[in-house]
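Weekly sync, protein design subgroup
Attendees: M.S., D.O., the rotation student, P.L. (late)

Item 1: inverse folding check
M.S. brought a backbone from last month's batch and wanted to see whether the design step gives back something sensible before we order anything. D.O. pointed out we never logged the input encoding, so this time it goes straight into the notes. Structure tokens as presented (134 positions):
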């Protein structure tokens, strides 16, 4: 893996920006205009996720008496939808019609983001010198 400081963070931010932009093109009721707005929204979402994501995840895990931890995917999906609505409230660059739209958008963004991060991570890996693999 290439270990240039900050490059992986910037690549993951770009992947999230692309996921936000594609989600706006796919999900009705999830609106933003242009790739630049997607980059700004991805940055705001990243900060909100950093500040509140883990707290909300553990809160819902505890409130549901541990079932939220057992169904971790559903809890993270629900938390991401809440974080999207918070991001919507913080910026005028994003418009999410309803919480149902935020749930669908969170699912689409998660899938696109996971695929994108996996692809970037695979592209960043290089075989060791002298390897028979090209």
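Designed sequence read out in the meeting:
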């Amino acid at each position: 893996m290439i270990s240039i400081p900050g490059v992986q963070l910037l690549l993951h931010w770009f992947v999230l920006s692309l996921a936000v932009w594609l989600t706006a093109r796919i999900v009705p009721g999830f609106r933003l205009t242009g790739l630049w707005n997607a980059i700004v929204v991805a940055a705001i979402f990243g900060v909100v996720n950093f500040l509140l994501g883990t707290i909300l995840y553990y809160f819902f895990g505890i409130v549901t008496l541990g079932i939220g931890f057992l169904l971790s995917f559903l809890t993270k999906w629900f938390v991401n939808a809440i974080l999207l609505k918070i991001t919507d409230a913080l910026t005028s660059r994003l418009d999410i019609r309803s919480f149902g739209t935020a749930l669908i958008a969170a699912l689409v963004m998660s899938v696109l983001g996971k695929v994108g991060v996996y692809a970037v991570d695979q592209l960043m890996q290089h075989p060791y010198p002298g390897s028979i693999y090209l």
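Discussion: The chain has a mean pLDDT of 89. Residues 7-124 form one domain.
Action: P.L. to compare against the previous round before Friday.
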